[in-house]
Design goal:
heterodimer; A: 356 residues; two-stranded antiparallel sheet; 4 strands; globular; B: 290 residues; mainly alpha; ABC transporter involved in vitamin B12 uptake, BtuC; two-stranded antiparallel ribbon
C-alpha cells in the first residue's frame, strides 16, 4: 500500500506539477469542483452548466476538424438531432434521462454516419459546404411537420435531469470530465491506450501518404465522424434536459459557427483549446448581460474580440500561451516548463540555438 | 403559372448568379472563402435606405453611391483583415463570419429588427403573354444579365481580366511575370463586393430590407458555387440559375413547402456532389481524387 502511495506521489510531482499546462488544468477542475461547494447561486450554476455543455460540443467539433482536417460547418446537426430525439422520446414515451441521453447520442451517431456518406467522397471546402447543408434540410423538415415536432416554437415539457440544481451541476461536471478524457485520449498522438490519435494525425498531414502506408483512411474518417457526433449528441441531450425546451434554434447556422468560433479562439487541434474558448467567451458574453449590456452589444463585443484574437494569434489562444510557458524537448519529445535549462527526462539542453 | 415560374426564376437566379460570381472571384483569385460575402449585399441595401430615406438623396445617385461605398468597404476589409491571415484558411473563415455578424448586430442596434422597404426604380407593369410583370422585375433581369455580361467582358477582353485569370491559375508564376498580385487581389475583392452590391440594389425593392437578410442568400450562394464547381465563374453562375429555378418551381407548385426553399437547394447540391464530387464545371486533380 505504502509503495503505491509513494509511486502515486512521485508520479504527481514528476508528471503533473512539472508541466504548467497540467497544473493549470488541475487547478481549473478543482476550482470548478469548489464552485458547487461554495456557492448556491442558481444563476451562476446555470451559466456554468450551459458552459459545460457547450464545451463538450466545441471539443467534439475539434475531434473532427482539428485532428482529421474535415471542417464540419454543420456541427449543430448532431447537437440538434440528439436534442430532438431526446425530447421526442422523453415527451411521447416518458423515458427517463438515463435512457434518453444515450439514445440521443446514438441518434446523433447514426445521422453522423449518413453525413459521412457524401463526406467520404469530398474533401476540403466541398466537404465543409456540404456539411453546412444538413442542419438546414432538417430545419425545413421540422418546420413542415410542425404538429409532430413543435414547429418554430419547439418541444417543451422535457423532464429535468434531477430535482436539485447542485446535483445537476455535479453530474454535468463528471460527464464533462469523462468526455474530455475520452476525447483527449482518442486524439492524443502520445496516448499508449488508444492508438487512433497518431493515425488521425497522419491522415490530417497527408491522406495519400497515409493510405499508401496501409492505413484504411476511410474507416478512420468514419470513426472520427462517429466519435465527434457521439459527443455532440451527448451535449445536445444534456442541453435538452437542462433548458427543457428544444426548438429549431439548436440547428441554426450561427450555432454551428459558434463551435468554430470557440475552437479557433481557443486553439484548434487540441482538446483543451475549445474548452478554454468556451469557458472564456460564453461566461464573458453572459456576464456582460448582467451589467445591462443588450444582446446586440454582447455579440458586438464577442465578434470584435474574435477578430482581434484571430488577427494576432491565428493559432488560437491556448497554443499561444502554451508556447510561452512550455517547451518540448527536441530529443525525447517530453514537455518541459520554459524556465528549465535542460530536459527533465533526458537532460538534453532545451534552448539550443535560441537567442536569450 | 409557367410564365411566372420563368420570370421569378430568372430574377432569383440572376441575383444568386451575381452573388455566386462575386464569391467565386474572391475564392478563385484572392483565395478567400468569404462567408460574409452576403453581408456586403445587406450593407448596400441599408446604405441605399439611409441615403434615400434619411438624407433624401434621389434613388439613382443613392444606388451608385452605395455600390461604390460597398466596394471600398470590401477593399478596406481585405487590406485590414483578410490580407493579414492569408496563410490560415480557417482564420479567414472565422474573420469573415465574425465580420458578417458584426455588421448584422450594428445594423440591428441602429435599425432594430423591422422590415423596411425601398421604393421601386420603375413603377407600373407590362402585360406579356397574358401575365402582368412589374417593370422592376424586368429591370432586375436586364441589369443582372448586363452586369454578368460586363464581368465576362472584363475577364475575357481586358488587361485587368487577363491578370486576374493569370493569378487565379498560378499566383507565384503570375508574380514572377511582374504582376502586382496584392493589388490585383484587392481590386478583385472590390469587384466581388460591388457585384454583391448590384444584386442587393436590384432585389431590395422586390424583397424587404432587414438585418438578417444575409443568411438565406449566403446558403444558396454557397450551394450554387459548390454545385457549379468552386473557383469556376461560369459554373457558379449556371449553378445559381439552376437553384433559382428549382426554388421558384417548388414554391409555386407546393406553396406549403416554402420552408423547404433552402433545403431544396442544398439537396440538389448534395445529389450532384454525390455523383460529381468536383461540381458541374470544377476541375479535380488526379492526386486529389479519393
Amino acid at each position: 500500500m505504502n509503495r503505491y502511495m509513494f509511486w502515486l506521489i512521485e508520479w504527481f510531482y514528476g508528471e503533473v506539477l512539472a508541466i504548467p499546462g497540467r497544473v493549470i488544468a488541475l487547478a481549473f477542475f478543482i476550482l470548478l469542483f469548489l464552485v458547487g461547494v461554495v456557492t448556491k447561486n442558481p444563476y451562476l450554476l446555470d451559466t456554468l452548466i450551459i458552459t459545460f455543455i457547450f464545451s463538450i460540443y466545441a471539443a467534439s467539433w475539434d475531434v473532427l476538424a482539428g485532428f482529421t482536417g474535415q471542417i464540419n460547418l454543420g456541427h449543430a446537426f448532431f447537437f440538434g438531432v440528439a436534442a430532438y430525439v431526446d425530447a421526442l422520446l422523453n415527451i411521447h414515451l416518458g423515458l427517463p434521462p438515463l435512457v434518453t441521453i444515450p439514445l440521443g447520442s446514438i441518434g446523433a451517431v447514426l445521422v453522423g454516419l449518413i453525413m459521412a456518406l457524401p463526406a467520404l467522397r469530398l474533401r476540403g471546402v466541398y466537404l465543409s459546404l456540404v456539411t453546412l447543408g444538413f442542419p438546414i434540410i432538417l430545419t425545413g423538415i421540422i418546420l413542415v411537420f410542425a404538429e409532430f415536432t413543435g414547429g418554430e416554437f419547439g418541444l417543451s415539457g422535457i423532464s429535468s435531469l434531477s430535482s436539485s440544481k447542485l446535483f445537476d451541476y455535479y453530474i454535468m461536471l463528471a460527464v464533462m470530465l469523462v468526455s474530455f478524457l475520452i476525447m483527449f485520449k482518442f486524439t492524443s498522438v502520445e496516448s499508449k491506450i488508444i492508438r487512433v490519435g497518431v493515425i488521425l494525425r497522419a491522415i490530417f498531414e497527408d491522406e495519400i501518404t497515409a493510405r499508401s502506408s496501409g492505413i484504411n483512411t476511410t474507416r478512420y474518417k468514419v470513426l472520427s465522424f462517429a466519435v465527434s457526433a457521439a459527443f455532440a449528441g451527448i451535449a445536445g441531450s444534456l442541453y435538452a434536459h437542462t433548458i427543457r425546451i428544444v426548438g429549431p434554434s439548436t440547428l441554426e447556422l450561427l450555432f454551428s459557427f459558434q463551435a468554430l468560433i470557440w475552437t479557433i479562439f481557443g486553439g484548434m487541434g487540441t482538446i483543451y483549446g475549445p474548452v478554454a474558448g468556451v469557458f472564456i467567451l460564453y461566461p464573458l458574453t453572459e456576464f456582460l448581460g448582467v451589467y445591462g449590456a443588450t444582446e446586440n452589444f454582447r455579440i458586438i463585443v464577442l465578434t470584435l474580440t474574435m477578430i482581434v484574437i484571430v488577427l494576432f494569434m491565428p493559432e488560437g489562444l491556448t497554443i499561444w500561451v502554451r508556447d510561452k510557458i512550455e517547451i518540448k524537448c527536441s530529443r525525447c519529445k517530453v514537455g518541459n516548463i520554459i524556465t528549465r535549462e535542460c530536459c527533465r527526462v533526458c537532460c538534453a539542453p532545451l534552448h539550443l540555438g535560441k537567442r536569450k | 403559372m409557367l410564365e411566372m415560374i420563368i420570370i421569378n426564376g430568372l430574377v432569383l437566379g440572376g441575383i444568386y448568379a451575381l452573388l455566386a460570381v462575386g464569391f467565386s472571384l474572391a475564392f478563385g483569385v484572392a483565395r478567400i472563402l468569404n462567408m460574409g460575402h452576403t453581408a456586403f449585399y445587406m450593407i448596400t441595401a441599408f446604405i441605399v435606405y439611409i441615403a434615400h430615406r434619411w438624407l433624401t438623396v434621389p434613388l439613382l445617385p443613392a444606388v451608385c453611391f452605395s455600390i461604390l461605398i460597398t466596394g471600398i468597404l470590401g477593399m478596406g476589409c481585405y487590406q485590414l483583415l483578410f490580407d493579414r491571415v492569408k496563410e490560415h484558411e480557417t482564420a479567414i473563415v472565422i474573420i469573415s463570419i465574425a465580420l458578417a455578424m458584426l455588421f448584422q448586430e450594428i445594423l440591428l442596434l441602429i435599425f432594430g429588427g423591422h422590415h423596411r422597404g425601398i421604393p421601386p426604380f420603375l413603377s407600373g407593369f407590362a402585360t406579356i403573354a397574358g401575365i402582368n410583370i412589374t417593370y422592376q422585375h424586368l429591370l432586375t433581369i436586364g441589369v443582372t444579365f448586363f452586369t454578368l455580361g460586363g464581368v465576362w467582358l472584363l475577364l475575357a477582353k481586358t488587361k485587368l481580366g487577363l491578370s486576374i485569370r493569370a493569378i487565379s491559375q498560378d499566383r507565384e508564376i503570375a508574380n514572377l511575370m511582374g504582376l502586382d498580385v496584392a493589388r490585383i487581389c484587392k481590386i478583385t475583392i472590390g469587384i466581388s463586393t460591388c457585384l454583391a452590391g448590384v444584386a442587393s440594389v436590384m432585389i431590395a425593392p422586390i424583397f424587404m430590407v432587414h438585418p438578417l437578410m444575409w443568411v438565406s442568400p449566403l446558403i444558396i450562394t454557397l450551394a450554387a458555387v459548390v454545385l457549379g464547381g468552386l473557383g469556376s465563374i461560369k459554373g457558379g453562375a449556371i449553378g445559381a440559375f439552376i437553384l433559382g429555378f428549382a426554388e421558384t418551381t417548388v414554391v409555386f407548385i407546393i406553396p406549403a413547402a416554402s420552408f423547404l426553399r433552402g433545403a431544396i437547394s442544398i439537396s440538389v447540391m448534395i445529389l450532384v456532389l454525390l455523383f460529381r464530387p468536383q461540381g458541374l464545371f470544377g476541375i479535380i486533380f488526379e492526386e486529389e481524387l479519393l
